[in-house]
Amino acid sequence: LEFRRVLFRSVIMMGPPGAGKGTQATRFASARGLLKISTGDILRDSIKAGLPVAIEAKRLMDAGELVDDATMIAIARDRLLRPDAAPGFVLDGFPRTVTQARALDAIVAEHAAGTLVIIDVLVPSDELVRRLAGRRICSSCGTNAEPFDTGHRCVKCGGEMVQRADDSSAVVLERLQVHQRATQPVLEFYRDRPTFRVVNGAQAPERVALELDAMIDDASAVGAALLKARQSS
Ligand code: AMP
Q1: Has this prediction a pTM greater than 0.85?
Q2: Residues with catalytic function
Q3: Distance from C-alpha of 29 to C-alpha of 92, rounded to nearest angstrom
Q4: How confident is the model at residue 149 (pLDDT cuts 50, 70, 90)?
Q5: How many A from CA of 92 to the centre of ligand 1?
Q6: For residue 37, how many other CB atoms are within 10 A of its CB?
Q7: Structure letter (DSSP) for residue 183
Q8: Burial code of 43-65, b = ≥16 C-beta within 10 A, e = fewer?
Q9: pLDDT, greater one: 133 or 201
Q10: 120 — phi, psi (to 5°)?
Q11: For residue 144, which of 156, 127, 128 has the smallest C-alpha distance?
């Protein structure tokens, strides 16, 4: 399997809502020819397409709660095992619970022989609230490129820029709490790995990008060396 050969180029982008992980994941993936997988985007697409799984998912998303682990693991697994993930992938928004993180390890162990690079994008919570309140996404293609002025059209497709239902102030606080409760433990799950890195996400996006690129390259090299050592022992 090709998946087996290239897995060490794969990255998990962690961090709270509003940290900029989606933006950085998209940029890094396209610069390196990797597949970006956003489980939030997959869910929003399923809702748009009116898939049965989407009814309960939409209710939970609108309330700022997590969709159940079994559903999310099935979605991630399906996406990861398709051929276009073979060159490597960047995960955005998955795993969000320790159960999901364990399942991801199992998928990797079953189908590949590599190590994942894990990045935590760190941003103070008052800054997150400020960013999420101002965030707009394109109602047709999902882009969240600035500027965010009202009436602004999407720079990519000309679609209407709107506020995400779950970016309203009531839901944002719940999402940040859910992140603290369910996702913070995932960082503890990964923290001791030699391929775990933290980036300061409160800087300008271009600065974050520079630091991220160097960090991911360094961690990938560490991962590749570990893999080699393991294979030859
Ligand atoms: P995001 O676009 O990553 O902020 O995700 C939006 C919403 O989709 C989240 O608030 C959750 O309700 C749901 N969601 C996305 N990914 C996951 C996941 N890995 N586990 C549980 N729920 C998720």
Answers
A1: yes
A2: 21, 96, 135, 164, 175
A3: 11
A4: low
A5: 9
A6: 23
A7: I
A8: bbebbeeeeeebeebbeebeebe
A9: 201
A10: -105, 120
A11: 156
